[in-house]
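Appendix B.2, paired examples.
Example (i):
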Amino acid sequence: MMARLWKAPWLLLVILVALVAFSYQEKRKTFVSVHEVNAIEVSVPGTLKYVTETYNKESGDLYNFRIIRILKIEKQITDHMELHIRVEMQRTTCFKTETSTCDVQRGELYKQIQCYFSVYAIPEFERYKILKKNCTDS
């Protein structure tokens, strides 16, 4: 009789440990793939537009920047899709209030930066979120 009383708490403990281990596995990203993609892939143009608009909104600069060169784009698929983007951007002649495509600055106002963006993307629904951003003068 006493042996049965000890088995019940051990069984409950084993079940609890199994549940904790299972829930931990559910929270981890399931790695599927990472590969380089080009700028014409379906998910890329909308993402590039989003990062440019977001950078310009958040920047303290009076002028808009635009992407002048794409250095590298990687698509990472886990339990969601992320795009890892490296680009060169230059300051344009357009103020932030302007939305047209403008020439890049020359002379004193010339500025070029290199940026890395990690973007959570659901392009089918035009949903994006910048997870990481790092921009430096080039």
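Example (ii):
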Amino acid sequence: MAKLVLTAVGEDRAGLVRSLADAVNAHGGNWETSELAELAGVFAGVILVSVPDDRVDALRGDLAGVAGLQVTPHVGTDVPVRHGVQMEFSVLGNDHPGIVREISDTLARHRLTIDHLTSRTIDAPMSGGTLFEATVRVRPLEGADLEAAVVDLERLAGEIQVDLTVA
């Protein structure tokens, strides 16, 4: 079985997910993992599917014809599930440009790879401003020092004026 990671973007409407699922199913594929969202009126998704090797090209052709969606298949590999130490932390503070850039720069310098990042902006309940909220799960690569990374993330949180909570 081939692994395909599908990225899908298009104007949000009812039935988009069904159209993708129908195409995968029609080629004997299996929908394994996905992250789907509506962002500013646009449907955006990342989907991992497995499909018989001899059906990959046919599925690619059908995905190109899903109305209203731009679907790009990327060939994946059978990578073993990554186990080991993980760290999760959350960020909350007044929204401003550069928060994700600063955090990701700190993580990269400390050889931490992001396994999952979820973020959003929300209305601040009392001040009328906008809050930025993120949850990040990272895994250390060889040579990483988690303790030093936490110290740097805490320092950065003070600089960019956000609350950091390490789980």
